[in-house]
Structures are given as structure tokens and as C-alpha cells.
Fold:
Amino acid sequence: MCKKLSILLLGFLIAAGACTSTQTYSSIEKGAQFMPETLGLVPGASAAELNFTWYADAGSGDVSQLRLFNEQGKLVKTVNGTANPASEGKVSHKVSVSGLNPHARYRYSVSNNGSDWSYDYNFRTAKQDSFSFACVGDPQLTLGEQDKTSNLFSADKTTAQGWKDTIVQIAKAGVDFIAGVGDQVDITAKGNENEYRNFFAPDELKTIPFAPAVGNHDRHYPFGYHFNLPNEQKFEPIVNAANKNDLETGTAEAAGNYWYLYNNTLFVVLNTSAYPDSAAAAEPYIDRFDTTLNAATAANRGKYTWLFVQHHKSTASIAQHIADEDIQYYVEAGFEKLMDKYNVDFVLAGHDHVYARSYAMRDGKPVNTDRDTIANPGAAIYLTVTTASGLKYYNIFDTEGIYVKNNTAYPYLVNGLTGSASYLQGNMPLSNSVGIQNKKPEYTVIQVSGKSVSFKTYDIDSGNPIDSFTVTK
Ligand SMILES: [Fe+2]
Ligand SMILES: [Fe+2]
Structure:
């Protein structure tokens, strides 16, 4: 090669290198500082994907762009998404990023006009070996309501602060993501964004993906504006007397049935926020769950060892929602039979603001009553988690507080009887293995290591778990 050509080629290579090597977070043009009002992540449709959502004022930009950087801050790509009008004069920006490497760390920045960019935040993708996640329930963020019944909080501590404190503990535990079981916000008025601002306030939620379930308090359009869900199944809304013939409520009740695969574990999220007023009225919802479970398991056949369901209204509760008829109708229409049909290993739920763990259950009965280490149960364990923020706590055997005092048919009790009255005499549901009401915010850390899953539930102020158990297969 002649000397002249070599110099030319060298010059070209330097120039080509300069084109990409200068594209780092520190050197790239960022315009003015963009501050999204809320910003959150949800696990993606596969391990190679991740979903992002943020809010900004209408009129401040109508594009959705995300710059993806590798761990060293080098620009990998810029991804475009959608921007749609949301409530209170806001725009909901959504981007789905694909082509991510497994077990990798990335940084990202977002923009709603393509010229002004946010700070950069970190996230990491699914590990190919063991992983852990946190389960939280009913943060139910309000506009600042105090936690009046807590054993822990001072009188002036708000649920917003309680939620932040819990998320800090969860981040310290080093979990890979958070699985929610509903009632993310209290939504005292539909479209009230202050509650969502409180929900997304912890900065850790810009780094740790959060997979939400729709709770009865989340039955509004803002849920869909704030969460970019993977593999969401589309269903027609049911609008009837039970939801006051309200299209927004019916639409929200039809949303939020979705799934995601994380390493060797399949998560199917179901929407039990509706209030069916008979077993027949519950059947269309059970059909939705069947459709979603069928789609999720068919798409991932042979890919998962463990199957988790996340949903809101626990069918294994032990406190004031114990005899609720809507939950009874879900069970009578076949909710727990579906868990058996699809060989679900764990059902995570909330709604009763109390901690409860069931035995391994099949066909409505305990099939394994081991407590600490449960080997090859071949049946579902139902876990009910309490509030993660400290909004309110429901008591066990609460004669005054129980919502339905006169139900003779439900729940099914350990003494062989059914109904509110026998429960209030001190008889737990036959499913119940552990029940705790500490009146403190709690969170559960779940470690999945191949064919072993261990659960540890913590009080926010305690280093020791209040309940722990391991399941193997
Ligand atoms: Fe709740
Ligand atoms: Fe609830």
C-alpha cells in the first residue's frame, strides 16, 4: 500500500471513529434540562425489551424520544415512541426499547421535543441466572393522608413518605424489579395526578422497573397513561350496573391483563379490580384471565420453571375483606380453578392491607401443610401482602370493621363451616398458613435461583423477616 493511501485510510478511520466515539452522554448535545413530571419503567415484552413512560405538560413537546447509552455512556441508539393526551393538560409519552443485551447495564435520557433532554438514569436487564424481585401492595398514594393507625409512624408522617422509605429499603435489597399487586394510588377524584406524582416520586423508580396490577382504586384512564404494559391483552369493556355504567371504569377494568418473562420465570398479571355482583357476572372476567393465561403460557412453553400470577383482590385474605361477595363470585366462577389448570406456583395479591400466606392449595384444599421448606407442592401458594406505604391496616377478626357481616356462604373456614359469623368467632380460612397484622408498611423480597424460590417479608423498620419460606421443585 502506498504511503499516501495509508495516510488517507488512517485519516478516514480516525474520522469514522470520531463520529461514534464523540456520541457519549457527557459530550452529546442536550439542550435545556428537561424535567419529566413523572417517569417510570415497566418490564418489556421479552428480556431484550424495556418499556418507559413519562408525563410532561401539553404544548411543551409532542414527540417521545429516548437516548440509550451503554454503561460507559456511549450512545447506542435513539428510540422513538408515542405521545398522547392524558389527564390534567398533560401528555403521556411512551417508548419501548428492544434489542437489549441480557444482564447488561444501560443509561437513558428522555425528551419530549427532541432537543431538550432529561438527566441520564441507569437500568439493568434480566440476569441469566438467579434474580430477585420485590412484591408490594396497596401503596395507594393519597394527596398526603397521614398514617393514623400505624405502630411505627409519627403522627405527621404521610403515606408519600412511607412509600419513599419502603422503596429505599427495596433498592438497598438490590432487587431487579418490583411486582405490584394493585391500588398504586387512592384516586379520590378521577384523574387526580397529585397521587401519581407521589407514587413516582422515589427516584429509584426511574431505575427499577415496576410491573403494576390494576386495583379497585386504579380504575381510571390515568393508569393506562402512566404504565406502558408489555404483552397486554385487549378486551372489550363491560359497562354495567356494577360499575355504575361508567365507560372509564369499565375500560380500566378491561385493561392491565398482561405478561412478562424474566429469566426462568413467567409472570401473568390479571385485573381483578371489577365488582361482579353474581358468579355469572364474574364469568366474563374469568374468561379474560383464561385467555391471558393461555396466551402467556403458550407463548413461553418450555421457557419457564416458575409461574407467578399477580392480581389485586386476594382470594386468600384474612381481614376485613374476608367475606366480600365480589371475591366470593370470582372464586365461584373459577378463579382458583384457573390457577390449578395452568399449574400456577404462586399467586401474589393485596387489597386486604394485611399479610397472609396460604398452604399449597389445589382444588380449594391444602395439599401440603409444610411451612418453612415446601418441596414439590404441585399446587399454588397464595400470598397476600399488606400496604407498602402505611395508608391503612385492616384487622383480623374485626367485628366492627368487616365489610360484609352477614355472608353465610363465604369464606370457607378451617372448622368446616362458612361465612362471616363463624370467622368472627376466631376461625381462619382453611387456606391460611400464616397471618400477620403488625400495622407497619411491609415488602416481600423473592429470590429465584433455578429450581428454588425463597420469600422473605420485612417490616420497614426491621432487619429480620417477619415471615420467610422456600419452595423447591
Ligand atoms: Fe387497597
Ligand atoms: Fe383494593
About this structure: Residues 1-21 have pLDDT under 50 and may be disordered.
